Amino acid sequence: MSYDENAILDIIAKVSKTAVNISTVKLVHNIFYQAVPVAGTGSGTLIDSTGLILTNNHVVGGAQKINVTLGTNEVLEGTIVGSCAIHDIAVVKVDGEGRNLQAAELGDSDKIRVGQRVYAIGNPFGLAGGPSVTSGVISAINRTIESERGLIENLVQTDASINPGNSGGPLVDVGGKVIAINTAIIPFAQGIGFAIPVNQAKECTDEIAVGGTAKKPYLGIVGLSLTMEIARYYALPVDHGVLVTRVAEGSPAESAGMSEGDIILEISNAETHRIEDLVNEIHGKKVGEVVRILAVHNGREHLFEIKLSEAP
């Protein structure tokens, strides 16, 4: 594959102009129940010349004050348009009138391939010299992680360093298109970062534009795709499906009686060979809709009827 470094650097320089710094002030209560202001910082991605910015919900959620520093070092006041907590996405608005803001070009995350080159861009401090850039590859797709904010599904895993404060910045391909939004790091591991596929961010943005909040259906399990090797190792009765490794407390799945070790075979009469099949089916449903899940439970097939709740 031919590689023109100068062309890549020009693309990165252009995309970097769409990365902004976001600083917040949140009120937390100390041990004496006194409200104490706490400063926070993160990054964002300009997606519209009018001043719409994609960032992480954990960056701006609960903030009493939001300041956005542009690439020109101009500081603007930001307001939250809406959020999609299940995907850790929020949309912030600044006044872009007369400022000639440059919006990022959003790509298609359904075309992401493991091994492709990517660049993580962030502006954690709004320092002179512009945003920071790290490079790496897509290490895996369709990851589910459990964070202090709950489960986050269908993430892109990358070895491009996503440093503290880079949450909300763009993850771009070699063509300069944003294919994901940086969201999380695992502090006790090396070379593991996660990002939200941009197609999910687009979907959240569209729902936010309509209602202010994106309501997502919630089942409440963590699972992994069952393979013949895993089935053989654990002497499982079937060699396909989704093995449930955790059931969230208070979730619809727990209320219906699902438990760790269950193997999901079908949902709404559609076979679930992989965790991606299950995730796609759930995301295609609505809050309050009842789904029928066929699973191996306590050694025999059992049909669960589960009413999906709104994601917490």
Strand content: 35-45%
Query: Helical segment tally?
Result: 6
Report mean pLDDT, rounded to a whole number: 86
The description of the largest β-sheet is:
7 strands, antiparallel
Question: How many beta-strand segments?
Answer: 21
Q: CATH-wise, what's the superfamily of the largest domain?
A: Trypsin-like serine proteases
Strand order of the largest sheet: 5-4-1-2-3-7-6
CATH class of the largest domain: Mainly Beta
Order of helices and strands: HEEEHEEEEEEEEEEHEEHEHEEHEEE
Question: In the CATH classification, which architecture of the largest domain applies?
Answer: Beta Barrel
Sum up the structure in keywords:
312 residues; alpha+beta; Thrombin, subunit H; seven-stranded antiparallel sheet; six-stranded antiparallel beta barrel; 6 helices; 21 strands
Written description of the protein model:
With 312 residues, the protein is α+β, with helices and mostly antiparallel strands. The protein has three domains: 5-93, Trypsin-like serine proteases (Thrombin, subunit H, Beta Barrel), CATH 2.40.10; 109-211, Beta Barrel (Thrombin, subunit H); 217-310, PDZ domain (Pdz3 Domain), CATH 2.30.42.10. The protein has helices at 5-16, 57-60, 198-211, 228-233, 252-256, 275-283, and strands at residues 19-29, 35-46, 52-55, 63-69, 75-77, 79-84, 89-93, 117-122, 132-147, 150-158, 170-172, 178-185, 193-197, 217-218, 221-225, 242-247, 263-267, 270-271, 290-297, 300-307, 309-310. It is globular and about 65 Å long. The model has no long low-confidence stretch (mean pLDDT 86).
Structure, briefly:
With 312 residues, the protein is of the alpha+beta class. The chain has helices spanning 5-16, 57-60, 198-211, 228-233, 252-256, 275-283; strands spanning 19-29, 35-46, 52-55, 63-69, 75-77, 79-84, 89-93, 117-122, 132-147, 150-158, 170-172, 178-185, 193-197, 217-218, 221-225, 242-247, 263-267, 270-271, 290-297, 300-307, 309-310.
